[in-house]
Hints:
CATH topology: ADP-ribosylglycohydrolase fold
Number of helices: 14
CATH superfamily: ADP-ribosylation/Crystallin J1
CATH architecture: Orthogonal Bundle
Oligomer: single chain
Mean pLDDT: 91
Largest sheet: none
Helix content: 55-70%
CATH class: Mainly Alpha
Strand content: under 5%
Number of strands: 0
Radius of gyration: 17 Å
Amino acid sequence: MSASEIRAEYGRLDEMIGHGTWNQPAGTITDDTEQALCIARSLAEQHKFDPADIADRFVAWYDSGPFDIGGMTRRSLSRLKHGDEWDEAGQHVWEQSREGQNAGNGSVMRCAPLAIPYATDRQRLVGVSRQSSQITHADPRCTYGCAVLNLTVAGLLDDVDTPLQDALDSVGSDATGELVTALQPLARGESPDTLETSGYVVHSLQTALHDGLFTESAEEAIVTAVNRGGDTDTIGAIAGAVAGARFGASALPDRWLDAIDEAGELKSIADQLVELA
């Protein structure tokens, strides 16, 4: 993008944040950040990964009547509310869902907080990432998608040279071939001819990792991802997590942060997660 095109796109995102989207007030966060906060709050308060506690927080959020919630997440949280254990609900929903509706992006959009306290323990990070997905999304494309994303974020936080390739090497042949095939070109520095913006987890990860890793600034990464359309908030959330780890929190514009009601809590919890690490 040229400098003038980037400035124009920044203006579009500023308008979205400043005036609100989805018919919600300015500064409103969507289900992506709300669920990520459930995970982050649990980590900060429990001082460890506790999937049952996270599941309880998801159910409490579900009961609050959120304006936006994905189909698999809604069905899984309903099962949790009615008695399923944290590691049962998502499995049941997955088994009852047909191909094309069984591997959404609803767990990868929220999992990044786990990469902070477990950044230096890659094996443990794979485990907690997969378990966090299993609460609502048990498909291996989802569980390993969370693992690859969080390993990539951890690599960026550790300033490694090849974070995505290292992530793929860490999960190895355990990850589904479809996921690895979609992400391997990015690890080699290649940009796919087409980037999809659907809610399919493989599409979302490929597009968001591309924008998070291939752009020149945090602003450009987030603006590019959001302005692609499609599942805008989720692709933007994933790309934002990658860009945040790559460029640092100070690279995010104050004019964006000032419009977010939860900005203060987000910073406070981030500090607590760093201390846990």
